[in-house]
Structures are given as C-alpha cells and as structure tokens.
Fold this protein.
Amino acid sequence: MPELLEQKKLSTKKDELHVGVISDTHGLLRPEVIRAFEGVSLIIHAGDVGRPSVLEALGNIATVIAVRGNTDRDSWAFRLPLTEVVGIGEISLYVLHDLNRLDLDPSVSGFRSVISGHTHEPAIENKNGVLFINPGSAGPKRFTLPVSVVLLHIKNNSLKVEQVTLKV
C-alpha cells in the first residue's frame, strides 16, 4: 500500500464484523437505513452526505467513516476527505465518492475493495481480485433506481457483500 495513504484501522476482536455501507443520502436518513444497520460495528458513507445531521445520526449507531461527495459543498463538508483508507484486520478498503476519480490501481496498491457512490445505481463487481462496491442511493428516490445500502460481512479476512434494497 502506498505510504502516502493514511489508513484508519478498526480493531477486530470479534469473529465476524458487520459494516454498513451507504452513499448519496443527500440530507435524508431514512428509518429503514437505521433498521438495516442495527448491529453493525462500522458505517462507511461514500459521499453526497447532504447534511451533518446525517453523520451524527449514523454515529449513534456505530463509528462512521465518510468521504466528501460532489454535492457536499457547505463549510462543514470540507472537513471530510475526498478519499479514505480503512483497515479492518488484514483487509484494506479504499473509499471515494466517484469511481471515475480513482487515481490508483487498487490491486497493485493492496486493496481488497473499492467503495464508491455517485451513480445512485447499486453495483457489486469483482475486477482483478478487487471487490468494487457501490451501495446505490439511500437518499431521495431517483427515477426507477432502488433505494439501497450494503452490508459488508468480514470473517476470517474474507468479504461477503449483502445488497439491501429498502422498502420505502
């Protein structure tokens, strides 16, 4: 992993760790998200948060790591980084809002997963041994796209992804 990237590490004393992955809330935190994230140890928000109250409410559930999205332009949002590196046990995750702005080769850099948002369309794809995750949008409904989040289950350094479509 490049030395220039500072990594936030989460200790893993449990056999299995559950991570909530969310993006594109645009200021709306639905009660369905709170229910979906019950029991998670960490929440990753891949940008377009919309309001700091969204992060505060998510912080009542679990530790939150968030990046800034293209619509996060108010002064509070500039405290959020554009990218984040998260270490969970032996697993490194790279988080950014817009996958088109990925400026490194995640496989060469040692990342097991890249988490992004921006498109509002959920996607889970394995490319060159790297799991690319876009949880879709959990905020205001857009077009015919689902309102969704992801639960990432980590056990014995393996990743299992569960797409959760919220009934809204």
Notes: Confidence is low (pLDDT under 50) at residues 1-5.
